[in-house]
């Protein structure tokens, strides 16, 4: 069965999205359909034309397109899309004027109000009547009953005002949802639509969807990079903020990777295409954000279940208010039917239903724009409740590669330059990671312009290397290769206590000095842990395969409160389970490769994204796209704020309706108060959720 995805414009509420989905499923040639409300998309299994889909969404005037269309809001377009509100308001004003001049019962007055209701509420009433006939009870069903009832009992002014205010409420809701979706739209608009390509010695301007792997793309200074690829010619600084959230541009040279949607700031580049447009890092991020915004958080699942019982309950209460006082207590039938209609309006679940998804959509989109990928509302909500965070060491707290931390010379007659020139000559012939650390340091500080000739080179497995330079015998390696005096042994012990690996070098058995090597701690790690402490993260734990001395040293330097050392990858998973049993929910931060079991076991797995590596994106619930630990406290703050806003919205929506319903007891509830309470609650919960857009890293 063929499957197609379409973009939908004008989808403003979850109830409307569900109605649209059901209407599409009713198309004879469609096997199944699924609406992604957060991304404003529908996936259709089967055969359906765009015309059929738009007909299914005609109740909401939905427009459907196969490709995402860049949309720039314009005042004139806004006016056109809301013409019915303007026309309905004009008819209402005419009706009020005629009411004063001709009286309420005059046919011309009634006609003006009827025109106001018909123009402003055509879509509302047609959908509501259709739902009523199918016994499908939603907010439009309630509003339709209220408007028809107001017309029957002659409350023309209130009926027209209810229609106009409900239309305004829906327009505001659409605006708020569009603002919340703006993060996805801004991501989609990052990559250019076309690319300048050199293919078979010809220069072509092609749509990015037509690019093939191996094509060479030409990118001039100031242009956006259209594809993921490898630089084959040129060098430049690249602004990667769109993908990684990094505020500082990164210098890229030949054979380095670049990503679609990033900005080439100053140099001419030729880039060999490595991934098709639909497989680029940006495309994956967009897909994951769209899916995440459609994932329902526990709070939203509760609201959906609650609304299923809430709407019929409101209808029963409204029926009771309209019938019990007149039938059993002999009170005015007209007065209490009016009160019952007001109950229907104030009980409309619009604000309640929209309270959670708008916050989820906004928060996940805001995080994506700041270089943090959250895979769903459930993880957003769970992170807000976390009090314990475990960190992998290598590649997470540290940079994942050994570097020289310090050195000490034991022979006053030699210089540091002499020491590192000889070390460079020997270690260049070794393949050990520690040897690479020494050669890189020597390159930067000793500048060994001419490589010394090494003869009789020999590698001693697990210890080091030896060789002859200028007829002198040199050895470089671990302390076990050398006979140390007390001063030298003390220096070695001190370095080891700091968690460093020690390398010694000798010339003709005379020890020249030592080099301390360690996996460098990420510069932002200490600041990140301090910020987490301020956010009342009660427990931070370091998980590492290194020995206890190193684990203790790094924990102390960074400020992590607890460490567990000498752990294999499977041991980390066991320790995460133990921490869960001891302290409840736990988040795990790792590099997304060998930490996969532990990340999957934690309540929230957070991966260092390595600018979008497949492993990180697939393994984790949350990915820090730029490997930037400073994004973690921001994400914690965002999740907590989102959680608070969701709770505030639910409480506010229910409280507003409860207070308005209490006005029924003294008979003070009017349709005016009801619609203002409903519209006000809807507007306030959406505006409250949009505050998440203001939270910056």
Automatic annotation (TrEMBL):
Transmembrane segments: 83-100, 145-168, 306-329, 341-365, 645-665
UniProt superkingdom: Bacteria
Keyword vocabulary terms for this entry: ATP-binding, Cadmium, Cell membrane, Ion transport, Membrane, Metal-binding, Nucleotide-binding, Phosphoprotein, Translocase, Transmembrane, Transmembrane helix, Transport
InterPro entries the UniProt entry points to: ATPase_P-typ_cyto_dom_N (IPR023299), ATPase_P-typ_P_site (IPR018303), ATPase_P-typ_TM_dom_sf (IPR023298), ATPase_P-typ_transduc_dom_A_sf (IPR008250), ATPase_P-type_domA (IPR059000), Cation_Transport_ATPase_IB (IPR051014), HAD-like_sf (IPR036412), HAD_sf (IPR023214)
Recorded topology in the membrane: Multi-pass membrane protein
EC number assigned by the record: 7.2.2.21
Class in the EC hierarchy, top level: translocase
One Pfam family matching this protein: HMA
Localization, UniProt: Cell membrane
Main subcellular localisation: membrane
Family listed: Belongs to the cation transport ATPase (P-type) (TC 3.A.3) family. Type IB subfamily.
Protein name as annotated: Cd(2+)-exporting ATPase
């Amino acid at each position: 069965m063929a499957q197609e995805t379409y973009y939908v414009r004008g989808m403003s509420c979850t109830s409307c999205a569900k109605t649209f989905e059901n209407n599409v499923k009713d198309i004879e040639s469609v096997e199944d359909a699924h609406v992604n409300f957060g991304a404003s998309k529908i996936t259709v299994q089967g055969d359906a034309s765009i015309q059929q889909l738009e007909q299914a969404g005609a109740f909401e005037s939905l427009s459907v397109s196969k490709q995402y269309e860049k949309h720039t809001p314009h005042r004139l377009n806004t006016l056109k899309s809301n013409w019915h509100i303007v026309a309905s308001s004009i008819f209402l004003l005419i009706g009020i004027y005629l009411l004063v001049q001709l009286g309420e019962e005059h046919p011309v007055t009634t006609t003006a109000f009827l025109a106001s209701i018909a123009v402003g509420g055509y879509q509302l009433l047609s959908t509501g009547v259709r739902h009523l006939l199918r016994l499908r009870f939603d907010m439009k069903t309630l509003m339709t009953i209220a408007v028809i009832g107001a017309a029957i009992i002659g409350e023309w002014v209130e009926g027209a005002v209810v229609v106009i205010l409900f239309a305004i409420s829906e327009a505001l809701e659409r605006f708020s949802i569009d603002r919340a979706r703006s993060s996805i739209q801004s991501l989609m608009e990052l990559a250019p639509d076309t690319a300048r390509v050199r293919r078979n010695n010809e220069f072509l301007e092609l749509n990015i969807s037509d690019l093939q792997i191996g094509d060479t793309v030409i990118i001039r200074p100031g242009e956006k990079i259209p594809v993921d690829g490898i630089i084959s010619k040129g060098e430049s600084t690249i602004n990667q903020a769109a993908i990684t959230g990094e505020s500082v541009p990164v210098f890229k040279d030949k054979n380095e990777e670049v990503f679609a949607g990033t900005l080439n700031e100053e140099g001419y580049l030729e880039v060999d295409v490595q991934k098709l447009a639909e497989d680029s890092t940006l495309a994956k991020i967009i897909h994951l954000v769209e899916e995440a915004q459609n994932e329902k958080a526990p709070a939203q699942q509760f609201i959906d279940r609650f609304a299923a019982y809430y709407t019929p309950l409101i209808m029963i209460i409204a029926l009771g208010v309209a019938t019990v006082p007149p039938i059993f207590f002999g009170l005015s039938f007209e007065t209490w039917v009016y009160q019952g209609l007001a109950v229907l309006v104030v009980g409309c679940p619009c604000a309640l239903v929209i309270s959670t998804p708008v916050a989820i959509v906004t928060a996940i989109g805001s995080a994506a724009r700041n270089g943090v990928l959250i895979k769903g509302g459930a993880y957003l909500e769970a992170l807000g409740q976390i009090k314990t965070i475990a960190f992998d060491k290598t590649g997470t707290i540290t940079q994942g590669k050994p570097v020289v931390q310090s050195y000490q010379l034991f022979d006053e007659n030699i210089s540091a330059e002499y020491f590192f020139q000889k070390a460079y000559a020997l270690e260049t012939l070794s393949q050990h990671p520690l040897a690479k650390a020494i050669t890189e340091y020597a390159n930067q500080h000793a500048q060994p312009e001419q490589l010394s000739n090494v003869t009789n080179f020999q590698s001693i497995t697990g210890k080091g290397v030896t060789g002859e330079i200028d007829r002198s015998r040199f050895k470089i390696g671990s302390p076990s290769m050398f006979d140390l005096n007390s001063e030298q042994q003390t220096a070695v012990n001190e370095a080891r206590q700091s968690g460093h690996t020690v390398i010694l070098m000798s010339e003709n058995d005379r020890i020249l000095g030592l080099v301390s090597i360690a996996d460098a701690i990420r510069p932002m790690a200490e600041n990140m842990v301090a910020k987490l402490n301020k956010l009342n993260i009660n427990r931070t734990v370091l998980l590492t395969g290194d020995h206890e001395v190193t684990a203790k040293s790094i924990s102390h330097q960074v400020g992590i409160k607890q460490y567990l050392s000498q752990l294999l990858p499977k041991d980390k998973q066991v320790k995460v389970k133990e921490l869960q049993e001891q302290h409840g929910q736990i988040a795990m931060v790792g590099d997304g490769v060998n930490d996969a079991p532990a990340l999957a076991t934690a309540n929230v797995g957070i991966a260092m994204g390595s600018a979008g590596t497949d492993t990180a994106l697939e393994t984790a619930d949350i990915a820090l796209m730029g490997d930037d630990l400073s994004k973690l406290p921001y994400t914690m703050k965002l999740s907590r704020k989102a959680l608070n806003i969701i709770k505030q919205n639910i409480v506010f929506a229910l409280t507003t309706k409860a207070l308005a319903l209490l006005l029924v007891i003294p008979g003070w509830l009017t349709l005016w108060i009801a619609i203002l309470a409903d519209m006000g609650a809807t507007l306030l919960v959406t505006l409250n959720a949009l505050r998440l857009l203001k939270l910056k890293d």
